[in-house]
Write the structure tokens for this entry.
Amino acid sequence: MADKFSVEILTKFCRKLLVAAGVPEGDADVVTDVLIDTSLEGIDTHGISRLPIYLSRVRNGRINARPRITVERSGAVAVVDGDNGLGQLVAVRSMEVAIGLAAEYGVGFVATKHSNHFGAASYYCKMAARRQMVGMAFTNTPPGIPPWGGRRPYFGTNPIAFAFPTDKHPVVVDMSSSTVARGNIILAAKEGREIPPGWAIDADGRPTTDPKKALEGAVLPIGGAKGYALALAVEVMSGIISGSAYGPGVGWIYDDSLEPVNIGHSFIAIDVSRLMPVETFHERMADMIRSIKAVPLAEGFERILIPGERRQMKAEERLTGGIPVSENLLKEFNDLARELGVQPLEA
């Protein structure tokens, strides 16, 4: 059972919690926008459901509430040091740098170190798409995927995302290197639900549908050995190239350690106008989308969707109908609100 709340109410509430925990108001606005946008699109595993753990780690000092984010530039390339700030804040600042570099040079590449879990990678790619640029984002995550043939996790679920501008909504590709994002298993464990077969193995390498055993074991890579190779590539593009932690060295904010997790990201922005007129790019994208949707349907399908289209439909639905907040999450929110002196949410 879940109660629904408007975007306006949840935005104000989440922002107040962050500010009460010591996050500066402007930074709280940035983080809140990322979380709300993610939940609007139906990615509940990476949206507002993550706020309680972020706040917990801000309050115990594991995440820096007031980071001094620094940038070192060299031509079209930059390195951002997130100073262990909230991942959403660090990632937004990093993509802003990449967009600025692309505006100057046609392409911008940013490697980011000393960061934290940044939620949905697609958000940062959409920032570039709004500027008529192609956006790409990579991040490593705590160990969750075994190398192909292994039974112990080494790589994270390591997502990669793209956004391509159109004359309407951007085409958005956002996928993890695993069969499923680990957040889906965390949410299932929190809600006491089993997970589907084929998602994960337990600590002994046996298939499991128990989310708690899955979190003790490993998530399976998408496409077998190909997913393992993709996870390795993302690890290089985020952890290795940025100077961040990598592999088992990446921390997990859900454990009891107080050490920074030191997650790494990278961001790419490409100015479409340096390659062709933006209107021409839009026309070519629109033609491709029309031709894809014109492909004859396979049995059991009613229509062909373009990547990102389902999310856009969900966002439009939730803008009018509200964002669902589960009973467990509502309790977490209101317990935090009372501790921080914020007015609780009323169902």
User: Anything to note?
Assistant: The chain has eleven helices and twelve strands. Residues 87-105 form the longest helix (19 residues). The chain has two domains: 1-60+308-346, 68-178+221-274.
